[in-house]
Amino acid sequence: MTSASPTLEVIRPGDDRYERVRHVYSATGSPAAVVQPRDARQVPEALAFARAQKAPIAIRSGGHGISSIATNDGGTVVDLSRLNRVEHLHGRRVRIGPGARWGEVARALHPLGLALSSGDSGDVGVGGLATSGGLGLLGRAHGLTIDHLVAAEIVTADGTQHRVSAQEDPELFWALRGAGANFGIVTAFEFDAVPTPDVAHASLTFLPPELSGFLEQWGLTLEAAPREVSAFLYIAGSAVHATIVYARADTTAASAALDPFAALPGLVGAQAQLVPYPEVPVATGAPHSGQQQLARTRTGLAVHLDRETSRRIADLVRSVDMVQIRSAGGAINDLPAEATAYAHRHQNFSVTAVAAGPARALLDAAWRPVHERMDGMYLSFESDHTPAGVVEAFPEPTLGRLRALKAHWDPDRVFTQNFDLSAPGIDPARTRASD
Ligand SMILES: Cc1cc2nc3c(=O)[nH]c(=O)nc-3n(C[C@H](O)[C@H](O)[C@H](O)COP(=O)(O)OP(=O)(O)OC[C@H]3O[C@@H](n4cnc5c(N)ncnc54)[C@H](O)[C@@H]3O)c2cc1C
Predict the structure, then answer these.
(1) Reduced to 3 states, what is the DSSP secondary structure of residue 81?
(2) CB 329 less than 6 A from any atom of ligand 1
(3) 228-245, pLDDT tens digit by residue?
């Protein structure tokens, strides 16, 4: 068993700091050691330490994983929270550590007049989201978070450090943008951020008289909206809450774009205002105690919320605790499917079912009819891993290309925690819908 050098911070049970670092948002844990590299140069040592323990390894940035749980019982956690700098390099170019949270990133970029679309939560970490996609509230206007990545630094399984970009190891750079967790530990991301003055931010609440018809109209309204509009729906019981962002500080254009949404049936509450973008990704800063440990999710992508899909989602709402429908499309679909390892460039919606209580027992049965209407999956919203799920997240020819890269860069299968491309039983001919 390798011991850590005197300078590598290792937190073990019994240490005063242990309670603060053992858990994550979606799980409690009791790791034997949490190693906290001070900077990127210490990450190879942290990885070597973790590998030498011959026990489970978790890579943690913000600790908000759903598709991969960044803690374990009896293993090692490589905790990157100290690699959290947000630096302005020049022009629109920024360099961000994986341990920064998206709320902090928004606040740091705002004085520069810049923003990066990430998601609805400011507590989510940069490392997990920027290696898988980033479906955010500026998404239809600006694309996915990974679409703004111009270079990254990564420590691969053999402990070597690489800078990757379109010019340097371009295949690995391609793989990082969607399947990054399979290839190593990203220690820095360089993005070209987008000039973003204030944005219009609307919160609408509906009690729709008939949910299925409402969803169909919501889908049509969103697809017809200008691409400055991105919108997320949260449906629980009979209440539908919408968060809508118009990505420019133009109140006339924003209200014209928002009016069709406010005209949908059952509106009971509405507010809209121009806000600085940092007010969009909501951050609580709450310490991690496994607060969402009971939640299980199923997720998929949809091209349209057509009548049949909407009917099935309305049925699903009756069986689970929440359904979330996030907009995709717009600038996200400007790139071809082969541009990044995230290959879903024709869908307009992400649909996620959340079950946290007794509904967990019903989740698979309730999800199945909706799943049959789905076309691909964004892995970051799925709480359970199956070989068929890997096929949905990475459709061919992406999957074959990724699996060849995985065999090259991670032959010992060190990084298997997040939709493992080397898992046995992956059959490109089978998805969960065909099982
Ligand atoms: C409340 C909430 C809201 C969310 N909203 C959105 C949203 O609107 N849009 C969206 O796109 N996603 C959203 N997500 C999903 C989120 O993007 C993923 O869960 C993401 O993995 C979290 O990143 P993290 O760094 O906090 O995760 P962590 O728990 O730290 O890591 C999760 C996994 O990512 C991998 N990983 C983390 N850091 C690195 C790294 N540096 N290098 C390589 N692999 C790494 C590891 O496999 C790790 O186990 C949301 C999640 C939550 C909990």
Answers:
(1) coil
(2) no
(3) 999 999 999 999 999 999
